Amino acid sequence: MSLVLEDLRAGYGDIPVLHGVSLEVREGEVVALLGRNGAGKTTLIKAAMGLVRTFSGRVRYGGVDLTPLPPFRRALKGLGYVPDDRRIFPELTVRENLLVAARPGPWNLEKVYDLLPRLREIQHRRGGLLSGGEQQMLTIARTLMTNPRLLLLDEPTEGLAPLLVEEIAHLVRSLKGEGMPILLAEQNLRFTGAVADRAYVLETGEVRLEGRMADLLEREEVAALLSL
Ligand code: ATP
């Protein structure tokens, strides 16, 4: 079950942002999507989920062509999307935020609480009262409740203090341990270095570099492609 993007051109209105991007996320892999602000990371994650306009190219998952399918059908095929703007329900409790997303499968309230014990502690707190880190945990947990087979994670460490970034890294490694493949858009090179197996570096909507994360960290071009 690989997620494969083939020569994808996608964007907003009539304006393409991705100019022919190809990549693959294989079974059990954590793959990072690196690039500076505006490189197209969020657009690529959204294009995989069907949330932006696709002009040409293909998105396949497990050999099935998802390109013509709307986002909810891609979710039913196994893609789980974690947006960067979190979008939790502020009036609902943590528990209710999780339950509204629930679909049958191995991930249920207990399993999610076991993975993220902090959420069990604050399960009766309203979403609007959570800290940034707690909101990020809840956003990921809510997507897990939909029982996806692959996660699309958009900038999970954005705006988080270093200690919380560590917690998210721990969470990503635990999910990898559970066999969950993850495509991760990120600017934080240290974080991705700690969790990703492979990475693609985007610049202006094209893949400039790709390879094993450990190898990419050795290459000077990577720092240059990520600097402002
Ligand atoms: P960031 O870290 O800032 O989110 P990114 O690598 O995720 O960066 P994208 O958000 O994918 O980059 O943006 C890529 C390009 O698409 C940018 O030039 C941006 O201005 C443009 N863009 C993003 N969202 C829209 C939109 N809703 N309508 C039109 N253009 C957009």
UniProtKB/TrEMBL annotation:
One of its GO terms (biological process) is L-amino acid transport. Coiled coil: none annotated. Keywords: Amino-acid transport, ATP-binding, Nucleotide-binding, Plasmid, Transport. Residues 3-228 form the ABC transporter domain. The keyword Nucleotide-binding applies. GO terms for molecular function: ATP binding; ATP hydrolysis activity; branched-chain amino acid transmembrane transporter activity. The keyword ATP-binding applies. SUPFAM superfamilies: P-loop containing nucleoside triphosphate hydrolases (SSF52540). Transmembrane segments: none annotated. Belongs to the ABC transporter superfamily. This is ABC-type branched-chain amino acid transport systems, ATPase component. It comes from Thermus oshimai JL-2.
